[in-house]
Write a structure and sequence with these properties.
The chain contains 14 helices and 14 strands. By secondary structure, it is α/β, with parallel strands linked by helices. An eight-stranded parallel sheet has the order 1-2-9-10-11-12-13-14. The protein has a four-stranded antiparallel sheet with strand order 4-5-6-7.
Length: 361
């Protein structure tokens, strides 16, 4: 997998699960429904892509969560105490459904001033989970460690619809906030890298924030102006410590692909095929050239909707197209989220693993 990322020769077709692994710190280990997948993985030469995050041992954000049950759902009120007053965010999670923000931290200009009053406290990193994860994974896969994005961080403070409008009508104000947060993210990332380096661990860094700046939510110009300058510096910093860097970006990437290349990411994933994405694998390979590796292209929804023979045919076409070339890793487009997984999902996932093993070798 690391050779494919570096565009070096590979001794076999690289493929992996996407954040689906049998290690204790994962969310699938204790779900019996996923055992057939783990058994198949033991039999096949498949890798793991294992997402983790380093944790801080000091509170850089003084946020106090308060939960209450109401109307069949859970409401979490996050109270953030700042020198100029309190910011409040409310998250609603209906039973058996994803959560959603129903009250953002920033609702007016007064809240902006409160946010800007928060003093910077450099992060103190606890990397014990990173170390143990790398030990668990060994040569079976890649530990995929996240880092923050200033655009994402700022957008998270606002109502999303309002933020999209502000990025267009009040660009300078949004840029000021992104600039403000960037310096903190850059410094904290450097501190993390300094802590990691003595351990000499193989890691792949990734950020997911820039996907919120892609069409149709934002124009390509927003990506160019509020992602590229910041991610270019963050990627350059990580590269200076010897680690490769990936961009996690669902959806449409055609109009921002040149800007993704400009940031100098080593990998782009999960490269969703049309219609969720807007570039097929041939177009992606041509646009990427030797400048960025690609990972993904097996749409997660297909595991729920297609037949096993259709899954196998998709794999056959991909492996036939890629051949012995490097710079590509075949994997699903997201973490499996069903607990327990449906029978059709398991059958199709097993068909994927078998087909890649046969056609890819």
């Amino acid at each position: 997998m690391f050779n494919a990322i570096a565009h070096k020769p590979v001794n076999r077709f690289p493929f992996c699960t996407y954040n689906c692994h049998p290690f204790e710190w994962g969310e699938h280990k204790n779900d019996p429904g996923y055992r057939p997948i783990f058994k198949k993985i033991e039999e096949n030469p498949v890798g793991y892509l294992c997402k983790i995050s380093a944790t801080t041992i000091n509170k850089t954000l003084e946020v106090e969560p308060h939960k209450r049950i109401e109307g069949g759902g859970t409401y979490t009120k996050n109270i953030w105490k700042t020198p100029l007053g309190t910011l409040i965010q409310t998250i609603r999670k209906p039973e058996d459904q994803p959560e959603m923000c129903v009250e953002p931290f920033i609702k007016n200009e007064s809240d902006v001033k409160k946010y800007l009053s928060v003093p910077y406290i450099s992060a103190q990193w606890d990397i014990s989970r990173v170390v143990s994860s790398v030990r668990d994974v060994g040569e079976k896969g890649i530990v995929y460690i996240s880092f923050n994005d200033p655009f994402y961080f700022i957008s998270y403070l606002f109502d999303q619809e309002e933020f999209v409008i502000k990025a267009f009508t009040e660009f300078d104000s949004i840029k000021y906030l992104v600039d403000f947060q960037f310096e903190r993210i850059y410094n904290d990332l450097k501190f993390l890298l300094d802590v990691l380096v003595p351990f000499g661990m193989p890691l792949l860094f990734y950020t997911a924030g820039p996907e919120l700046a892609t069409p149709p939510l934002h124009s390509p110009d927003v990506f160019r102006r509020l992602i590229v300058p910041y991610q270019t510096r963050l990627v350059e910093l990580i590269h200076s410590y010897g680690y490769p860097v990936s961009l996690h970006c669902h959806g449409r990437v055609r109009d921002v692909f040149p800007y993704i290349l400009e940031c100098a990411f080593d990998v782009l994933e999960p490269i969703e095929p049309p219609p969720q994405g807007d570039m097929d694998l041939e177009e992606l390979r041509k646009a990427a050239g030797g400048g960025i590796a690609l990972m993904g292209y097996i749409q997660d929804q297909d595991f729920y909707l297609l037949r096993e023979d259709e899954i196998r045919e998709k794999i056959r076409l991909i492996t036939e197209f890629i051949g012995k070339d490097t710079g590509y890793i075949c994997c699903p487009t997201c973490t499996p989220f069903q607990h327990p997984p449906s029978e059709i999902y398991i059958k199709n996932y097993l068909a994927f693993l078998d087909a890649v093993k046969v056609d890819g070798n």
